[in-house]
Amino acid sequence: VQLQASGGGLVQAGGFLRLSCKASGINFRLGTMGWYRQNSEAQRELVATISNGDSSTDYADFAKGRFTISRNHATRTTYLQMNNLKSDDTAVYYCNAQYSGTHWGQGTLVTVSS
Length: 114
Description:
Blueprint: E1 2-6, E2 9-12, E3 17-24, E4 32-38, E5 45-50, E6 57-59, E7 67-72, E8 77-82, E9 91-98, E10 102-104, E11 108-113
Parallel strand pairs: 2-11
Antiparallel strand pairs: 1-3, 3-8, 4-5, 4-9, 5-6, 7-8, 9-10, 9-11
């Protein structure tokens, strides 16, 4: 299983980014996909997940109203649209797949300058 995350970068507070995670080696349609994040001082925390069935979504409280997770089965890609970014959103963002175990991507760094 490979999860290739991209889209991170440096953005000013109030700006936006869209992260992408392309999956291979996994039955994408059957996996629950998610995004997690970790900064240097904290444990890895859930950002959002999207289910394999009805694509129902779940968000951490800090992500509600600002972040949107989505998935495209044709391209096997999971997205995280992040709007109104804050300095506290600075972290490495990891793509996650739940299918026959837990799988992680390599992470993409998001830096929000105030």
